[in-house]
Amino acid sequence: MPAGAVTGSEARAAAGPVWIAAIGKAAASMALGAHDALGPAIERVLVITKDGHVPPQTRALPGVEICESAHPVPDQRSLDAGQSLLRWMEALPEAAQPLFLISGGASSLVEVLEEGVTLAQLGRLNEEGHASGIPIGELNARRGRLSRIKGGRLAALLAGRPARAFFISDVPGDDPAVIGSGIMGPASTGPDHVERTIVASLDHALDAVAAAARKLHLDVQRASKRFDGEAVRLAIRFSHELHLSTAQGCVWGGESTVRLPERPGRGGRNQHLALAAARQLAGQSRMLLLAAGTDGTDGPTEDAGAVVDGETCARVALAELDADDCLRRADAGTALAASGDLISTGPTGTNVGDLVIGLKLSPEAAQLLWQDRDGRGARVL
């Protein structure tokens, strides 16, 4: 959780023990941030997050219960995590102060279904939603209608009890009613005394990229609006904007969509966008484009995304693959693995959406980029 979200003075002012429920792909790091700020005031911590997103420091927290669950498609572990969350709510002492730490991914990671709704129905909704490329807000609204805890229903279980909720937002508008399908959005019924605060968002990430560029004495053009829409169309747009820009680089933030075939291959939306952009950059030795998820994962893969350049498609062809065919089959990850362009960061501890960064190199830097190293054609910066 970003520094300053919970201050030391707030910790000293705590009137009772703090119970934390941290839910989402950034849950583990948010729990650590809360522990740094609140320390011994914390009595119990429930962390619900994606497989492989729990560092040893979180596991070592006193009073911690960890549920590693499924993303992007829910499974039985999502329902088990939902029961753990309900037990946490039921056991909440009268004197305790509830603190909810919510980040993207909660839609899949935790669920308590309405009576008569099956896990298979929920799974089909998620798969169809991702395959059809519908906007995340609409998909989250559909998920909420099947749930007993989404769409403000979890807040309603507090029955007006005061609580605080901090959000890392990965959705347009940074609306708590949309983040994680509204798992800690305004109560659907009854009184609501939850104080809600957005502590990190895509704008923070874009500002950080621009600040880092300035430190490197690079002139970077930051997009003013969040992007959305089909990944291939966006790749064309970004490539053209980079080419036409008078700046040395461009940075965009948002979330693209990909319509998946019946049997998709390897990859995620950022890899799809990157490979589509590589076709536009082909032969342009001075241009690079990165597309990656800020959480360190892209769709169902372990890769964050990819960085492509003017020779990516040539390297794909040398591997006896066809970039156009890989895009048709939603198999961008296979092509980008063959070209050596995938980026693997591991879980980053945050989740504010996707970043696309384009860079136009100077002639000198471009020459260095294509230097042959050890006779293997490796790229160096």
How does this structure look, described?
- By secondary structure, this protein is of the alpha/beta class.
- It has two domains: 186 residues, Glycerate kinase, MOFRL-like N-terminal domain (Rossmann fold), CATH 3.40.50; 167 residues, glycerate kinase, domain 1 (3-Layer(aba) Sandwich).
- The strands form two sheets. Strands 7, 8, 9, 10, 11, 12 and 13 form a seven-stranded mixed beta sheet that branches. A six-stranded parallel beta sheet has the order 3-2-1-4-5-6, with helices on both faces.
- Helix 10 crosses helix 11 and helix 12 packs across helix 14.
- It is globular.
- The two termini are 32 Å apart.
- The C terminus is likely disordered.
Short summary:
With 381 residues, the chain is an alpha/beta fold. 36% of the residues lie in helices and 20% in strands.
CATH topology of the largest domain: Rossmann fold
CATH superfamily of the largest domain: Glycerate kinase, MOFRL-like N-terminal domain
Specify the number of helices.
Answer: 15
What is the radius of gyration computed over CA atoms, rounded to a whole number of angstroms? 22 Å
Q: Report the order of strands and helices.
A: HEHEHEHEHHHHEEHEEHEHEEHHHEEH
Largest sheet: 7 strands, mixed
Strand content: 15-25%
Number of strands: 13
Q: What is the class of the largest domain in the CATH system?
A: Alpha Beta
Low-confidence stretches: 7-13, 372-381
The CATH architecture classification of the largest domain is 3-Layer(aba) Sandwich
